[in-house]
Design goal:
Largest sheet: 6 strands, mixed
Keywords: Amino-acid biosynthesis, ATP-binding, Cytoplasm, Glycosyltransferase, Histidine biosynthesis, Nucleotide-binding, Transferase
Number of strands: 11
GO molecular function, one term: ATP phosphoribosyltransferase activity
Order of helices and strands: EHEEHEHEEEHEHEHEEHH
Bound molecules: 1-O-pyrophosphono-5-O-phosphono-alpha-D-ribofuranose
Pathway: Amino-acid biosynthesis; L-histidine biosynthesis; L-histidine from 5-phospho-alpha-D-ribose 1-diphosphate: step 1/9
Strand content: 25-35%
Pfam families: HisG (PF01634)
Number of helices: 8
CATH superfamily of the largest domain: Periplasmic binding protein-like II
Shape: elongated
Structural class: alpha/beta
Oligomer: single chain
Family: Belongs to the ATP phosphoribosyltransferase family. Short subfamily.
């Protein structure tokens, strides 16, 4: 029996609420203010859990370095970051996909077309696999702006409802990969805190399989 709390890195933003709901359905008593708080560290001592709230792209970094035992991260982030962590579960929440998009009826520049993205690694490997040489322009958000103002020929970005593309007059050209959120673990924590981790995996798994049926 290990008394130190399991530390879980949670992604702030759109995945957060779905992840919190999943944990509640799995029977974890999270306080109501959990979802609204601006605190970055939240102790839920009744459950022997501690949550750290990070930017989604940073969750695997906290887990890789072992300051969090577990984390919840989108597959998009996992592909981009390639951190030394294990993926334990597909939580099947926050489904979306990565796509290539741009202005309608436009061809990419033949020489070094510019691709704007928050995912430079994913975008480079994708275009390399397609045999296309591209110039990657790294942005941190509002990626859809880039082709409209002439910063890039195409973007590589997340599409969820498709509303952002539509409202900005952009169209999808290629579907790269489907994305859902994953439960990830630090390899050392997985060995040392195996019982506690197996328990949380079992409880979450039960909820996920119920949802599928
Ligand atoms: C994400 C993504 C798209 C949008 C897609 O951005 O980068 O812009 O959501 O969602 P939709 O298909 O439902 O419209 P986010 O809101 O995370 O903000 P960002 O612009 O800072 O990346």
């Amino acid at each position: 029996m290990n008394d130190t709390p399991l530390i879980i890195a949670m992604p702030k933003g759109r995945i957060f609420h779905e992840a919190a709901e999943l944990l509640r359905k799995a029977g974890y008593q999270l306080p109501p203010e959990f979802d609204e708080s601006r605190k970055l560290i939240v102790d839920v001592s009744e459950e022997n859990l501690q949550f750290i709230l990070a930017k989604p792209m940073d969750v695997p970094t906290y887990v890789e370095h072992g300051v969090a035992d577990l984390g919840i991260a989108g597959k998009d982030v996992m592909l981009e970051e390639e951190r030394d962590v294990y993926e334990l579960l597909d939580l099947k929440i926050s489904p979306c996909y990565l796509a290539v998009a741009g202005l309608p009826d436009t061809k990419m520049n033949e020489v070094a077309p510019k691709i704007a993205t928050k995912y430079p690694n994913v975008a480079s490997s994708y275009f390399r696999e397609q045999g296309e040489q591209v110039e990657i322009i790294k942005l941190n958000g509002s990626i859809e702006l880039a082709p409209i103002v002439g910063l890039a020929d195409r973007i590589v970005d997340i599409v969820s409802t498709g509303r952002t593309l539509k409202e900005n007059g952009l169209v999808e050209y290629e579907h790269i990969v489907d994305v859902t959120s994953r439960l990830i673990v630090n390899p050392v924590s997985y060995r040392i805190k195996d019982a506690a981790i197996e328990q949380i995996v079992d409880r979450l798994n039960r909820v996920i399989s119920e949802k599928v049926v």
